[in-house]
Amino acid sequence: MNPNNPVRIDRRVAIKWMLAVSAGAMLARGRALGGAAAGADAPVEAGYGTDPNLLKPYKAGDYWALTFNQAQRRQAAVLADIILPAEGASPSASSIGVVDFLDEWVSAPYPDNVRDRKIILDGLSWVDDESVRRFGKPYTSASDSEKISLCEEMSRSTQGQPDPGSAHAFFRLLRDLVASGYYTTPVGMRDIGYVGNMPLAKFEGPPAELIQKLGLADEVKW
User: Fold this and answer.
1) Angle at the Cα of 195 (from 211 to 113), degrees rounded to 5?
2) What global pTM score does this model have?
3) For residue 124, what are the CA distances in angstroms to 20, 73, 128, 166, 173?
4) Per-10-residue mean pLDDT, the chain, length 222
5) Measured between alpha carbons, how far apart are the two ends of the chain, in Å?
6) Residue 202: which region, alpha, beta or left (left: phi > 0; alpha: psi -120 to 50)?
7) How many Å apart are CA 94 and CA 145, to the nearest integer?
């Protein structure tokens, strides 16, 4: 364990397990497709259009106008790679399209996405302003240690639920979105050992030690 880089330690210890729940919650809120363009302060549309053709390939921005400018994309990429950096055989978040996922998420016209858009855009602006105030340079130009120190400060827990406008709330939401984008890609699924809907010659069931740990020995019978 490297005491000088606790954010990277979280990648396998905390991100993979603690954020499994967060990623599932994000997906439950709907990674929906199809709809009208929406800006940072745009009202929620009354209708979202027809169902998309899920068998047709699409690229970011095909279903609604994207929100991030180039500076915000660069900043989001840096933050995403601090949360989930390249490690061993696992690539960094930005290298597998997580920034595109973030941009699409905050650009969607649905109520939850509109709410998250303000938190993310305000948070990116705060991070840049704070970097200039502390280090005399924009966040993307700061040193690695300066970037990480600011993330560590934002990641510290607060008592109860954080203020939606706080840096902690921003970083927690960003962390959850990065995890959602990463671990729903084929690369991310392989990273946690998820094999998907694969045919099995034989299913042995869940490990006995797991059943015992969960206290389900009386409920699970094979």
Assistant:
1) 95
2) 0.69
3) 24, 10, 6, 12, 12
4) 40 47 46 40 56 79 90 97 92 95 94 94 95 96 95 80 78 95 89 78 81 80 62
5) 40
6) beta
7) 19
**What residues have CB less than 8 Å from 139, skipping those under 6 apart?**
75, 78, 127, 128, 131, 147, 150
3-state secondary structure 91-156: CCCHHHCHHHHHHHHHHCCCHHHHHHHHHHHHHHHHHHHHHHHHHCCCHHHCCHHHHHHHHHHHHC
- Residues 84, 93 contacting (CB under 8 angstroms): yes
- DSSP class of residue 185 equals S
Which helix (H) or strand (E) segment holds residue 176: the answer is helix 167-182
Residues with Cβ within 8 Å of 198's Cβ and at least 6 positions away in sequence, in order, are none
| Tokens found for residue 41 | 């302060």
Question: Among 167, 196, 193, 174, which residue's Cα sits nearest to residue 16?
Answer: 193
d(CA 173, CA 179): 10
Q: Do you know the residue count of the chain?
A: 222
| Two structure tokens written together for 215 | 């206290």
Cα–Cα distance between 72 and 78 in angstroms, integer? 10
d(CA 202, CA 205): 9
Q: How far is CA 34 from CA 63, 93, 184, in A?
A: 5, 25, 19
CB 9 within 8 A of CB 82: no
Q: Tell me the C-alpha distance between 80 and 99, whole Å.
A: 8
